[in-house]
Please model this.
Amino acid sequence: MSYWADVIFVLIVVLNLGLLSSSRLGNCIRLVAIEGALLGLLPLLLQGGQPEGRTFVFALGSILVKGIILPLMLNWAVREANIFREVEPFIGYTVSMVIGVVLLIVSFWISARLVLPIEVSRLAVSTALFTILVGLFLIVSRKKAITQALSYLVMENGIFIFGTMAVALETSFMGIIIFHINRQFEHIDMDQLASLKDWHGTRHSEERT
Amino acid sequence: MKWYALIHIGLGLVGSPLLLGIMNRVKAFFAGRRGPALVQPYYDLWKLLRKGNVYSRTTTWIFTTGPMLGLAAVLTALTLMPFGGISALISFKGDLILFVYLLGITRFFTVLAGLDTGSSLEGMGASREVQFSALVEPALLLGLTALALETRCLSLSVIYRQMTTIIHPSIISVVLLVMVAFFFIFLTENARIPVDDPNTHLELTMVHEVMVLDHSGIDLAIIQYTAALKHWIFGLLIAGLAVPIHTGEFWLDTVGVLGGIFIVAVLVGVVESTLARFRLIHIPKMLVAASVLSVLAMILVEVSK
Amino acid sequence: MILQAIVVIPFLSGLVTLVVHQRNLRKIILIFTAIVHLGLTFFFWFTRPPASFHGWLAVDALGFIFLSITSLLFFAAAFYTLDYLARSEQQGKDIHSLSAKEMLQPEAIFLGCLQLLLATMTLTILSQHVGLLWVAIEATTLVSAPLIYFHKNERSLEATWKYLIICSVGIALGLLGTIFLDIATFNTAGQRVPLFMRELVNGAFFLQKDWLKGAFIFILVGYGTKMGLAPMHTWLPDAHSEAPSVISMLLSATLLNCAFLGILRIHQICVAAGIAVFSQQLFIGFGILSIFVAAVFIFNQ
Model:
């Protein structure tokens, strides 16, 4: 069973690398949606023996929200703001992909040196670290507000992988609920952000005063 | 001397233009036409062989010998290439590096012959071709390195023989990643859409075609035949990974890998029919993606040990 | 029972304020909430309330100080808000001749979120479970965002967005730290320490030291973002300057305290586990960095 979990982790790594190189917003949203849906399957696979009923509900809820509802809201926001491509980001796309490889190597190296008290595969820890790092990197290097919100979702996906490993499902459960509410807020904001498409620096605000 | 490897080389020599025919037929099918006959490339080669050559006055001996040197290099690479799980004619430790550089020599002489004409048009094609190849070589080497890491040996024949015997689910992701990377490399090295359009005759959009524009007659036949052989070799690279059967029965394995190559040809035809050519600035991204997939495969090999 | 009241009452009155239409009734509810909260806190000074919800909520010594500060300040803020709202509306009418609808957030949202903020802050202070602490801090971020966006202009929108995304990233890292703490509770014997403060402090000896250190780092960086430690403080100048002065006061005097409480809790665990030196050094380091950054920027100004 853990073999299928490994396949999912590899797919997530490939999806993250694709996210680093993609400039079309519709594409990015689709990639994050697929990632979220795949991660929803993860608790079922990592449970080991007989998965309990509440794990099923949890997984179904995750897949529904991350794979369908959130992308719909994000697509709606994209159409409202009438932007379809990212403007040239601070760090170019090809360079981002190479940096992604570096981050991948770093996360594998770190996970090799961690002493894990629980039974988890090294691939799982590496994928989680890699996803978090990619999310952080994307938040920093992209200019559009929608891409930043999307990268935040990626980061949260990475933290979710860690959460499923620490079998304290209550923590991950609470975490997920709050993240969902958080995203609702960000989408209400997105509506008003239709006028504010780029990331102005603080200098810009100072000029105004 | 392994006599059965000679059979495979013969198959390659005879069957490679057929791959081109298959691709054209698939493209015609998608366009709703009947398309040329499957053996049309053979007729084209035969026609070209009977024609005379025309040489421009600005060219030197490089232009006349370039195609032949390219063909010689590719033929040598063919002797190194294993047929699925069956060893190649020549195999020794480290032959995969020689393999990559033989392909590099082919490209080098084609480019040199193109530059020798002194035409700026061919210079443009040559520079584009070299730019893509500069990115393809690391991708190819990294992909082969991933396979070498998995099987712990440096000879192409041994690698492919091992790959067909270890059919373990845990390495499927590695094999898949390397296969996808090799597919990108196939499309680039053989100048297929989405990297280059083999049918275009607009100067602005040509990459490989423009480089060989000035060749005629026998030289052109040699160049087209070299291209067909390259298709065959790269197809073997992919099909050898895709067909993981090693029954030990010689003819069964041969037919299996042949089937694999033809499926690869059909797949390339489908890709050519459904995609448009990428903008030139996006192609480096695709090649870097191929390298990245190979690196990921390498990392996965280490992790699963 | 009493303990739940101090959280539930502001929460309910906040929700009620969101839907009530009459302006005066809303203001009365706000004042009522402030008085009740202060009254209950005063009451706790004399009689310690018992833990409720099987130990999820309790008032310990540390919580007492923070609770008193929060309660007092909110009380003062509530009265000031009434005057502030009246003046803002007047200003809007006089200077810009705009209706309140165009210039300002609806009062209902403002007053409602204010009380929800009180509720979530109290929940943070009282929470004894590390996971619930995280949920409460995330909730404070969410309910305080509309408060910053009171004056609807482009600058405050940008400030609110910065606040939301930077604090969300920080709190996500805080969640990662909490998960690391959870992992640290696994030991080779297979027993697990539950994530309650008292058990964690008592059983700190059995925690995996490396994971505890990792948890401390991530919680320090994560909740430190909310608190305004350099170099994660970049949302502070914008948010505090664009928000109404009442909100600015509440943010800096009470909300930052709550984030600091989160950091202090894990410091307690570290001290009990014997790696106090590690956490203390990190505290000193970040503190010096913050002062240094401030000094440099004072020069610039």
Chains B and C do not touch (no CB pair under 8 Å).
